[in-house]
């Protein structure tokens, strides 16, 4: 059995090989005939008239139609139930329109409790202020009463001091009168008693004097006292109570703001392209919806690091989309990223630089780059908005990095470069005569040295002893003459 299967497999392989060889031979013969016919015509060469053209260099590729105004509508609510959703993806909404409503029950309960605390704090402050004012008033009244009482006692003490001085003077006078009698002596009992009375009167004067000083000091203290301790206590309480009330009021404002934010509104007008909420489910924060303006569109594209240095804001661009058919849309580069993108996030192929192209060929070629090199985001604004454009459409883009208008140009195949670097073209000096002679009169050619400038996809700018209207010789392109060349032209699909 195994041998039979192997024989069948060999026959299939041989059959496929023969079939492939036949197909290849047929293709080779067809291409060979075509090449032979074209080679006969083309190898004779042709003459092209020198004209003035607009030639440009450009960077071309694909981009994506995006919105100029795009906004992610976000919310910080986490774990909050979504009560209602008022839009759906694809809806066109206006700025300020409600997108969804989150549940506010818990926030409203919280706000109610905070407001109760604010009311209680304010009532307590009023009550405590009243108590402090009452105590301060009582203190002031006590002070005034003490001042009045001390002043009365001081006046009485001064009177008693004057009486004590009078009694002392009287005692001194009695002693002096007694001692005026020659018969009396200081050691007499009466003299001793009079001296003792004088000492007693002196002591009483000192007591009265000290009492006056004490009352004066007490009065000064009462007068100078300003109840500052009571006022300080009241001010300290007021500061603490006011700060507490302010904090509660700020918390209330925060909760009120959070309640307001539970009604999520769009900040711009446009189309709802993404919606991340669903009624009845919990929302865990982040983007509620993405709204993109549909009236103001642009093209975003990624440019390879090889070409980004050639692109600048203000450069003109031409674009095509399937929706706008063959119509070329003009625009201008409005943004060039200063930093490489992490990746082509919008699925855009990086724009690739071309050698150049003619103005008539703009936006006709576009190729995504398979390179893994860094890419840079650019934005291109349309000169005029087109109603056929929609978000997410692919656009072929050609950014004009260099251009020359009214350039004297010739097909670049007509320019021959010599080994020393000089360039020339061959001009037919008898073109009008020879072209109408059916080959009877040969073309006469002369070499004209030229300098080349900007090169397009087919034409190149030239200068030198060459004029508009001259006819330059364009050599024929060489055809493929071997099977290897045919297979190379056909690529990997030509293999058998």
Please summarize what this structure is.
The chain is built from six helices and 20 strands. It has 496 residues and is of the alpha+beta class.
Question: Would you mind describing this structure in some detail?
Answer:
The protein is an alpha+beta fold. The protein has helices at 2-42, 105-180, 189-224, 228-261, 431-435, 483-490; strands at 46-49, 51-67, 70-85, 92-93, 98-102, 263-265, 270-275, 282-292, 297-304, 316-320, 329-336, 350-353, 357-358, 375-382, 394-411, 416-417, 423-428, 445-455, 459-464, 471-474. The strands form three sheets. Strands 2, 9, 10, 11, 12, 13, 14, 15, 16, 17, 18 and 19 form a twelve-stranded mixed β-sheet that branches. It has a six-stranded antiparallel β-sheet with strand order 4-7-8-3-5-6. A hairpin with a 6-residue loop joins strand 7 (270-275) and strand 8 (282-292). The radius of gyration is 55 Å and the shape is elongated. The model is unreliable at 1-19, 33-43, 360-371 and 479-496 (pLDDT under 50).
Q: Helicity range of the residues?
A: 40-55%
Order of helices and strands: HEEEEEHHHEEEEEEEEEEEEHEEEH
Seen as an oligomer or otherwise, the chain set is single chain
Radius of gyration from the CA trace? Answer: 55 Å
Would you spell out the secondary-structure blueprint of this structure?
Layout lengths: L1 H41 L3 E4 L1 E17 L2 E16 L6 E2 L4 E5 L2 H76 L8 H36 L3 H34 L1 E3 L4 E6 L6 E11 L4 E8 L11 E5 L8 E8 L13 E4 L3 E2 L16 E8 L11 E18 L4 E2 L5 E6 L2 H5 L9 E11 L3 E6 L6 E4 L8 H8 L6
Parallel strand pairs: 9-12
Antiparallel strand pairs: 1-20, 2-9, 2-12, 2-13, 2-15, 3-5, 3-8, 4-7, 5-6, 7-8, 9-14, 10-11, 10-15, 11-14, 15-19, 16-17, 17-18, 18-19
